[in-house]
Amino acid sequence: MKIQENVYTIGNLEAEQSILGAILLDKTCIEHIETLTGNDFSKEYHKIIFESMTDLNKKNKPIDLITLTSELKSKGLLDDVGGVSYITSLSTIVPTTSSVKHYVDIVKSLSNKRKIVKASYSLIENIRSGKDIDSSRVIFEKDSQIDSKTDNEADSIVEVLAELFDDMQERPEEKIKTGISIIDKCTNGLGKHELITIGAGSGVGKSAIALKIAINAYFANKKVLIFSREMSKKQIAKRILLSQTGISKKQFENREFTNYDWERTYETIKRFSERNMILDDKSSTIQMFKSKMRREKPDLVIVDYTQLVTPSNTKESRERQVAEISRELQQMARDFDTTIIQLSQLAEKGSGNFRPTGESYTRESRAIYHDSHIVIYIHRVTEEKELEKAYKSIPAFHERGSFEDIKATIETRANSGIRFVEINVDKNRDGEPGSNFYWFKGSDLDYYSII
Question: Which domains does the chain have, with CATH numbers?
Answer without folding.
Answer: 2-143 (1.10.860.10), 181-449 (3.40.50.300)
